[in-house]
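Protein modeling request. Please complete all fields; requests missing the sequence field cannot be processed.
Requester role: graduate student
Desired output: 3D structure, token encoding
Chains: 1
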Amino acid sequence: MGYGEGNAVGGEEHQAASGWQPPGVVERTLYEAKLRGDWPAFFDALAGADLFIAESAEWAEAYPETPQCLPYWYSQVRANCLPVLTEGMLPDPEPETLFWNTSLDWFADGWRDRGTSWIVVNPGSPCEVFFPATPAHRALWQEHVRRLAQSDCGHPHDHMRLRALEGSGAATGAVAHGLGLIALLSVNNGELWNNMAYHGMGHTGEKRRLKDWWGVTSREEWRDCQQRLLDADMVSGAWEFVLGVRRSLSRDFGGHVEMDQWRQAAEKVLRRGAEGTEYRLSADGVTKVGPRDSAEVAAQIAGVQRLIGRIARYEKRFRADGLLAEGKFVPSVEAWDYGRAAGMARWGLGARFCDQREAESAILRAGKLSRANYRSWEEFSASYILGRCLHFDEEEFGTWYQDMLEAHRILSTDPGSPWLTVPWK
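Delivered output (425 residues):
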């Protein structure tokens, strides 16, 4: 056996399937290894792949942290087998069937099922393979896992990889454009950028992502969050205020805006607003609000001046690193919300807080809004990254910035990048 691949059953493993196009790199690697009868290579690829087990929605609701592992009888080996899918072979998401995301490492080390003696990878496809799952075999699978962990290449889903479906994913058109908005995060996370039929980290993983990062635990909360992102209602009003002042100056004076001019204009707008009288609608009716306290105004002006300085320093670094061309500036940071809106659509689909039609509609709308407000992928990217940095980075230029810089460079140079294959407009 040698590498844990002994007794694998692949049917007509040396006969190529006519006209079959593997949906992704993982499936192509498994298929080619099967055709060669190269089981060490097959298990090496399997050790680095995300694996998925189907489970019912009822089971997932009752036991969210325990996969169902439901076996089926297969005549090929005359035994109960657990079907396991790689990510490119997953069906379109639907409400009743969910998928648990796991790995060969888990099967080797943590899976125990006395009623199942075989596993079948990608059943019904040309890369279908049956293999026994005895304790001895599982120990050998672990050798593949350990060898992968020790190799230079590491896990194929390590950060900073542009990954795509090759046959069934969006490649052109408005949906591909919308998915390109979240490509910075897709590359950063090593996820398939063009997969509209999204399962992500599996149902449980996607629910955990939304809860931990967004506080979203229900369909209603997801819809509210999705709408706020599409309305660009989550970016700071202060950020948009100072960038809006600079946009106005640039239009009025035809180009570059000096820092002192920008700061003076922002202060002038704030003082003018503080001196006037406002009428606000409240539960008690219309309330007249007179001029604001001078100390409050001074504090607001000081905060805006500091913010202008932060933005200017980020843009200087952006130019040095190639995110911005010389003389260019970030027009707004609404891109950060639009990009996350495209991500929220897919995350909601993976968590089953929406269906594929709703997710696609949100992604199309995010793309339309982005095209209306930005002129290129590069401008969108710099705007998205500035929003992320203003929120998370605190001018440390740490991983919140460096990760996005590396992802931007990959998307700007990789021939398969949507930024090079999908026109902005």
